[in-house]
Design a protein that fits this description.
The structure holds two protein chains of two kinds. Chain A is mostly helical. Chain A contains 22 helices and no strands. Chain B is rod-shaped and about 100 Å long. The chains are: A mainly alpha, B mainly alpha. Chain B: It is found in: Cell membrane.
């Protein structure tokens, strides 16, 4: 009888707690969004499954000695996984649209206002009882506005590891929701006439320029913002491997196998942070609200900047392309193209939007570097 | 009281951060424009020259030859 009782105490049924069950439901919810709705499936499948594994009673997968604990410790606590992903993103990124029209970097800079405005908002949220965000917490939350998963995870792991689960889930969920969040803001801030603006075709970019570009970016980062060199350095390495043309094998590995392997473990490690005691808090709700705010402000400030540039510049600039400044490559650029085509069926803005789009990746890496240098 | 000082810090960070991002990316714009002067036009000149030479000599004369041959064939058939 006693043996049976001991066996019963070793079952999951006897050890379930309500919060753990809620978190497993959250994990199933993420799996549903990924599989049925197609929301960032590459990340939400491992994150959702990781959330289920983490909350299994008795097994202790996310406690010292458990698999997920070590995956997190090796990959995210050290900051290695987001950086490896960033190298892959660099190898996947084509900068020619930006090199052809470098002024688009200003749009990538303007959209980072979403990050810094949200930082202010996160601190202001401390007036609501139940919220106690420090400056580090607020910075880690605000980086959601950079719309860049690896950057958000990297910064959160350095500044506020206890909020990492909520921040990563918010960042990836909102990136999947870009086609729903951005268009209403873009339409509200531009006139029909502005959305109609056609932009001149981009010039051809030489191979030499493409090879030198990552080296120029890296040397500027080394000189002015060494705190951003982990992110920018790996990004530039990936991009150089892509453009130099002599290490196609390495470039292919960085773009495919390596980024895929890292994504599996990154997702699982993020899922391991979705433990009930860390996720089921008021702060998570606050992070979700602030994340949406960050995306919206970033989109709006990008569009405003593009409007100003259109007024001042001799070459017409369609204000819609400013919305692509919030990185979220290439979704944001596709959204710009779609909204542009609604206004003018002959206006293909995709290539023009890719400039601010990749500028946004650099912008958010620079913003992360600034936050690390000032707050970290 | 504490929140007020945090807000001030956050505001300060907002201004420094935005200025930092803009200054950094402006320097990058300057650098990329210079990069285009150094490494860009050379290749675009070459391609435009090639395209021009092709259209003025090879391609157009071949086209003309083909068209005249076709016309001649059409006339002889009649």
């Amino acid at each position: 009888m006693e043996g049976l009782l001991n066996l019963w105490h070793a079952t999951g049924l006897a050890n379930f707690t309500i919060p753990a069950l809620v978190m497993m439901a959250v994990g199933c919810g993420l799996l549903y969004l990924a599989i049925a709705k197609g929301f960032e499936p590459l990340l939400l499948v491992p994150i959702g499954f990781g959330a289920i594994l983490t909350n299994i009673p008795v097994a202790g997968l996310a406690e010292p000695g458990g698999l997920l604990y070590y995956v997190y410790y090796i990959g995210i606590d050290s900051g290695v996984f987001p950086l490896l992903i960033f190298m892959g993103v660099g190898a996947l990124t084509d900068f020619s649209a930006l090199i052809a029209n470098p002024r688009m970097l200003l749009l990538g800079a303007a959209a980072q206002f979403g990050i810094f405005a949200t930082l202010f908002g996160a601190i202001a949220l401390n007036y609501v009882p139940g919220f106690e965000f420090t400056l580090k917490d607020a910075s880690a939350i605000a980086i959601i506005g950079g719309a860049d998963g690896p950057t958000a995870i990297f910064l959160a792991s350095k500044l506020a590891p206890e909020l990492l689960g909520a921040i990563a889930v918010a960042a990836y969920s909102y990136m999947a929701l870009v086609p729903i969040i951005q268009p209403p803001i873009m339409r509200a801030l531009t006139s029909e006439q502005e959305r109609n603006i056609e932009m001149p075709q981009l010039r051809v970019v030489s191979k030499k320029e493409k090879i030198l570009f990552p080296l120029v970016v890296l040397s500027l980062t080394i000189m002015f913002l060494p705190a951003a060199t982990p992110l920018v350095g790996m990004f530039c390495l990936g991009n150089l491997m892509r453009e130099c043309g002599v290490v196609d094998r390495l470039s292919n590995t960085a773009q495919n196998e390596l980024i895929n392997i890292t994504t599996i473990f990154l997702g699982l490690a993020v899922g391991s942070k979705l433990a009930a005691d860390q996720f089921l808090t008021v702060e998570t709700l606050g992070i979700l609200v602030l994340g949406a705010l960050a995306f919206s402000i970033g989109t709006a400030s990008g569009v405003f900047m593009a409007k100003i540039m259109n007024r001042l510049s001799s070459n017409p600039i369609n204000p819609l392309v400013g919305a692509a400044g919030v990185s979220a490559v290439p979704m944001a650029a596709r959204v710009v193209n779609k909204v542009g085509l609604e206004a003018n069926p002959h206006n293909f803005l995709l290539m023009h939007a890719m400039g601010p789009n990749v500028a946004g990746v650099l912008g958010s890496a620079v913003a992360a570097g600034i936050l690390l240098a000032l707050v970290g | 009281m504490d929140i007020v000082s945090l807000l001030l810090q956050a505001g300060n960070l907002m201004i420094t951060g935005m200025v930092g991002v803009f200054v950094f990316l402006s320097i990058l714009i300057f650098a990329v424009k210079n990069l285009a002067k150094l490494a860009g036009p050379e290749l675009s000149n070459n391609t435009s020259n090639q395209a021009a030479s092709k259209s003025s000599t090879g391609v157009s004369s071949a086209h003309i030859a083909a068209i005249t041959a076709a016309i001649a064939q059409y006339r002889t058939k009649k």
